[in-house]
Amino acid sequence: MKAKKIDLSGYPTGQLDEKGQPVTYDVRKSLVSVLFHPGLQLDPFQVLEANELADKIRIGGDTILLSEQEYAKIQAGLKVIKGCQEADVEFVRRLIHAEEVELEEVEA
Hints:
3-stranded antiparallel β-sheet
């Protein structure tokens, strides 16, 4: 079984906040936003499915493994997003170029 490995750790955007402190890009929050993008026009069943994946992202560690079906939901969200900015480059790179890993099945 194959999965996509995505780095959820934040990264510096190169920008400063109003207090002059470096701004860290919130990868986890942005990834959840991709799942619920208005351009997807999710129906009630799809929004519940998206929420299950969002919960997995919210509680995950610094990396997450996504099944092919889960990754397809991320890709669908990326396809409807318009207006990306320079700070989004690393985020988009992590998603589009996510490492594919082979998972071994464990017998119970």
